[in-house]
Amino acid sequence: MKYQAECELVIKYAVEMEDRDLTVGTSGNVSMRVDDGAIITPSTIPYKEIRPEDCCLLDLEGGVLEGEKIPSVEHKVHLECYKARSDVNAVIHAHPTVASAFAAARIPLPAFLDEFGVYVGDEVRVAEYAISGTVEIAKSAVDTMGETANAVFLASHGMVCVGRDLAGAMHVARQVERGAQIYLWTKMLGGPVDLPEDSKNLFAQVFAFYRTR
């Protein structure tokens, strides 16, 4: 495999995704941008059994450049993220419990915490439902996420998180799941108090700064 080290890194974060209960079994997928396109996890192989040679090297149009395994069915979502956002170098598609509940209920998650606004950006919106693996779900996800957020819910499915690198995308994924949990708990206490507008504006500036660095 041409990108041995990159494949090992993708596998590392795929295993971490499972270990942190951000997905179950072989659901979800992880990728990172490389010069030739993107490295992505293969379909239906348990994460702790994936070898570097099992990873798939794709060009940005979905053509397989290297790898004998079938790429993840959701590879179109990953590739659309890379084509739409030059600041994105890693994508994690996960199915964490609470975030997936928001996706199933078609409820967006507002940026109600300081750190949420800095790392996740704007609210996590819900992309219109489309069948997994289709161009429609990929374009819906990217269009809904836009450039003001690093995460999007896929209706009745899960979430997609992006970052400048895999560590950043994982941090976003953890922030979204944690934020979803806290949001539900605040509902038991009367609901979250909205952040002041000047704070929101500041966090938006910090988010934009990090996007370009």
Stretches with pLDDT under 50, minimum 5 residues = none
Largest sheet data = 8 strands, mixed
Secondary-structure class? alpha+beta
Helix content percent band: 40-55%
CATH architectural grouping: 3-Layer(aba) Sandwich
Order of helices and strands: HEEEEHEHHEHEEHH
Q: Tell me the β content.
A: 15-25%
The number of domains is: 1
Report how far apart the termini are: 29 Å
**Rg for CA atoms:** 17 Å
CATH class label: Alpha Beta
The 3D shape can be described as globular
Strand adjacency order, main sheet: 4-3-2-1-5-8-7-6
The number of distinct β-strands equals: 8
What is the fold-level CATH name, i.e. the topology? L-fuculose-1-phosphate Aldolase
How confident overall, as mean pLDDT? 95
Q: Helix count, per DSSP?
A: 7
Question: Going by CATH, what is the homologous superfamily?
Answer: Class II aldolase/adducin N-terminal domain
Record the SSE blueprint.
Blueprint: H1 4-19, E1 29-34, E2 37-40, E3 56-58, E4 64-66, H2 75-84, E5 90-94, H3 97-105, H4 114-119, E6 126-127, H5 135-145, E7 151-154, E8 158-163, H6 166-188, H7 197-211
Parallel strand pairs: 6-7
Antiparallel strand pairs: 1-2, 1-5, 2-3, 3-4, 5-8, 7-8
Helix pairs in contact: 2-5, 3-6
